Amino acid sequence: MKDKKGNTQLNGLSIGMCLGLSIGTAIGAATNNIGLWMPVGLSIGIGLGIALGYSNKNTDNKDDNNEEDCRDDGKRNRT
Fold first, then answer.
1. Is the distance from CB of 10 to CB of 46 less than 8 angstroms?
2. What does the alpha-carbon distance between residue 33 and residue 7 come to, in Å, rounded to a whole number?
3. Are 50 and 13 in contact (CB under 8 A)?
4. pTM given for the model
5. pLDDT in tens for each of the 79 residues of the chain?
6. Which of 33, 42, 45, 60 lies in the 20 to 30 Å Cα band around 22?
7. Do residues 46 and 40 lie in contact, with contact meaning Cβ atoms separated by under 8 Å?
8. Beta-carbon contacts of residue 13 (< 8 Å; ≥ 6 apart)
């Protein structure tokens, strides 16, 4: 994993797809209609995964900005 920050959206997408597919399969097995619920669960999982990836990307950017601000505080001349 060379670039951890660049892959946050992909990590969220893969987690969302796995969760959506498993939940859709479970509901499909319970209702005896797997053909309907697998794609529905996958679609919902993709949507949630993309949202999760964007939220992780935003929190990573905030952390980077805070680190830069801390480094700059020592360099600034305070009057």
1. no
2. 35
3. yes
4. 0.61
5. 445 555 666 788 888 999 999 999 999 999 999 999 999 999 999 999 888 887 766 666 655 555 555 555 555 555 5
6. 60
7. no
8. 46, 49, 50, 52, 53
